[in-house]
Amino acid sequence: MSSCNVRSADEDIWTRQIFLTQLCSQEPSKSGTAAAVSIAKQQPWQLSVGSDGIRVMMESALTARDRVGVQDFVLLENHTSEVAFIENLRKRFKENLIYTYIGSVLVSMNPYKDLEIYTKQHMERYRGVNFYEVSPHIYAVADNAYRSMRTERRDQCILISGESGAGKTEASKKVLQYYAVTCPASDHVQTVKDRLLQSNPVLEAFGNAKTLRNDNSSRFGKYMDIQFDFKGAPVGGHIINYLLEKSRVVHQSHGERNFHIFYQLIEGGEDDLLRRLGLEKNAQQYQYLVKIVRKALSVIGFTDDEVEELLNIIASVLHLGNVQYGGEDSGSSYITTDTQIKYLARLLGVDGTVLKEALTHKKIIAKGEELMSPLNQEQAASARDALSKAIYGRTFTWLVNKINDSLAFKDDSFNSKNASVIGLLDIYGFEVFQNNSFEQFCINYCNEKLQQLFIELTLKSEQEEYEAEGITWEPVQYFNNKIICDLVEEKFKGIISILDEECLRPGDASDITFLEKLEDTVGGHAHFVTHKLADGKTRKVMGREEFRLSHYAGEVNYNVNGFLDKNNDLLFRNLKEAATQFKNSLAKLMEILMSKEPSYVRCIKPNDAKQAGRFDEVLIRHQVKYLGLMENLRVRRAGFAYRRRYENFLQRYKSLCPDTWPNWNGRLVDGVSSLVKHLGYKPEEYKLGRTKIFIRFPKTLFATEDALEVRKHSLATKLQSSWKGYRQKIKYRKMRQSAIRIQAWWRGILARREAKRRREAANTIRRFIKGFIYRHQPRCPENEYFLDYVRYSFLMKLHRSLPKTVLDKSWPTPPPALIEASEQLRKLCMQNMVWKYCKNINPEWKHQLEQKVVASEIFKDKKDNYPQSVPKLFVGTRLNGEDINPKVLQALGNDKMKYAVPVTKYDRKGYKARNRQLLLMANSAIIVEEAKMKQRIDYSSLKGISVSSLSDGMFVLHVASEDNKQKGDVVLQNEHVIETLTKVAICAEKINSININQGSIKFNVAQGKEGIIDFTSGSELLIAKAKNGHLSVVSIADEIMEIISVRNKKKITGLFFDFSDCPSPQLKMMDES
């Protein structure tokens, strides 16, 4: 991110809406626009916004500022008010908007909950987008640094600072994750990405610990360089660590823990591993597991042996802490835990005797001679702790170097001069505790240096931009903390130099003597005070062992207890002390940062309880002060709050002026000048530079933006109507052209079809006529088409007019060549219809048809009233059980009755008519008179049955008279003669024994005597004894029966079918219908 390009947070956020002003040509009202600006200045518009819409869109309009605040503190109207600053933070935090800008500085609030703003889709949204075009985000800072590195070919760095628990480590992780996802990738690049990401859990395990303020607090400062090739792909990296809190190895405050790796090893290590290391599991629970760290080490490139050695050293620190001492009378000490020494010797690979001596003696060199002096119990414990801290500190340094070797790009063909670097500084923020010691002194000194660098670079970038634009630079009054930095780091006179001198001088040096020397050396400094030098009011809040420094962020009291021990290296007196080492490494860090283009991320912790949604105003005000955010904002707002290039400003607001709308063709500066004059800007509100317009007050920008919001409504209406009209015209033209093309194409198809049809018709007619001429000749090319057509026509006609029932005798007349085939088809068709009909007949209907077939065989063409019987169904019986006397039924017993019908019996002598009942049994026919069975005729004695050919109902049963039981033939008459005789013939199996006589019937009256029945035709049925002694029967004439038959046929049309051509004799009777 270029520090010389300082712009407001909303500078490019409206570029998505510029198309509204490009497509509309409506001129604005001069008076209307000016009035809108005037009203907006007096009372800003308040427009509603969606509650849970896309945050980017919600923040993309300045009209949402009343609800969610401004996304850049530079645009705060009352920028000098800390209350307004914190209130803006509160508004945004309430809406889960944790990021806010101060110019190019990102302020980040720890939400203490997961937010769905770190997905791959969000990364793509910020990728390659202008810094202010979307809402504030850590991805915007990362992407802007990356694009600046690519385009300007200048190294970048991102400085992340804040209190413990403010989210610094998470912010650095998000930056690394962003580069891992969005940067170009290859196999090697992917390996580097994985190692960069996996370096975090390793360094967190060895450098982070649980504190009262943070469960995963970084207890060291980290600066990471990410190296990119000319394609923009990460190809390597390098890590520098600062001020590891080694004292945590041997001492932790109440409620805090040691470094994570110790708990990971004890809680998550396998039993075999712990057995080899001489460790045992304890009951403490911990949120990390050693398996994750071992996997990360494997990804980074550690071998199994190196991991094993690393764990050995960590275990040795644990064992070293369990070394206990005893005291002798002489004052010297000795080790009481020999088992720990054995473990230590094996794990560290040293001689146990030498190690034991080193922990209980010190080496003194006097006049070139080495002497071993025993240590007392307290000194030995201090030496043990010093060794523990040294081992852990050197292990951590070795671990960082090993990671650097893994991240280093080793391709010889790669030119490092063409490489670009993005640095990532994750360092502690300004710390003020109830009891501040040596660590807080170093941390706050580091923040003083970073604040000094930040102010210098900010003022420098501001001044360079003003000078480049030709605007007079107005010096900014700010607190120059160089005086404090000199107080701490000045040679021979600074606090660090005095501390080193006190550590190295012979004699009994102590923390109190160090404090006294400070009073003597720097006691007159305006930013230094002790209890001794303070006034009475200050002494009440200061301890006698404290000194106070007035930092840029406020006053801090430091307790000198432990300063010498923490600064001293008891193992190596010839090495530089800790404070001096830190000062030198910090100076190198400043050189690195000065050589790069910086970006800043300030992290704020909303509360100490780590609760989501809780906003602790007191705590946040404390952090705002110690992070120097108000000072930062004051520097940014010392001149003009907002600046923008002419083309962008004119492009956005040109619709507010009739002279610039819809397009401005002159010089850009003239267009902007006309625009601001039309808007009513006062001279003190803005300045015109060479390429940019500078606006001093945010209210001026807000009024202009509100006027644009009013203007957008008319623009949107005009745009909608123009676009709808344009779209409909285009649609109509396209539809019209399409219709014309379709019509032409279809007309061509129709014309071609018609021409083809006519040609084919002519050819067909020609062939047909020629075929007709040669139709009687043998088949030849001239007549084959005609003959085929004739055959085809017949078959199609036959297909359309096939008989629907077996009674349908119609059949098309075939051509001569198809007579034989037609006859065969007719037979097949009839057989198929008969087969289908028979297949669908149920058993009851079949029995009915069988009886009808028998009747047909007997009476067809023989008896006149037979046609009238055909449509009438034969019934099972004409008498029910109630019609027959119970005595008769009792007499019949189990003999089954098959048919019963009322008949009239004529005596054989006087032919007197008597009502009787005819019962057909299984083996005989019985004539019943009321309750008396008058005559039983066995079927075996039935010689035959005689009936006339006329339409009367008379019939005679001829009975054999060999025995005296039979009285002779029986003369009977009933109305259902066809049905009755058919039943008798079937039951008696006498189908062929029924005689149909013409004129008369002779019958046996008694033994040796005959009777005669004469039959004649008449208009009505008459039965009487004639004068000649015969029985005379006058039946209905044939003409009358014919009329009745025709009427019956009309009633039953479709009930029966003609089976006269059917080969089955049982179905031929159906032809009678």
From TrEMBL:
Residues 863-1037 form the TH1 domain. It is found in: Cell projection, Stereocilium membrane; Cytoplasm, Cell cortex. It comes from the Eukaryota. InterPro entries: IQ_motif_EF-hand-BS (IPR000048), Kinesin_motor_dom_sf (IPR036961), Myosin_head_motor_dom-like (IPR001609), Myosin_TH1 (IPR010926), MYSc_Myo1 (IPR036072), P-loop_NTPase (IPR027417). One of its GO terms (biological process) is actin filament-based movement. ATP binds at residues 162-169. Pfam families: IQ (PF00612), Myosin_head (PF00063), Myosin_TH1 (PF06017). One of its GO terms (cellular component) is cell cortex. Residues 69-709 form the Myosin motor domain. Keywords: Acetylation, Actin-binding, ATP-binding, Cell membrane, Cell projection, Cytoplasm, Membrane, Methylation, Motor protein, Myosin, Nucleotide-binding, Repeat. Coiled coil: none annotated. One of its GO terms (molecular function) is ATP binding. Residues 586-608 are annotated as: Actin-binding. Its main location: membrane. Belongs to the TRAFAC class myosin-kinesin ATPase superfamily. Myosin family. This is Unconventional myosin-Ic. It comes from Anabarilius grahami.
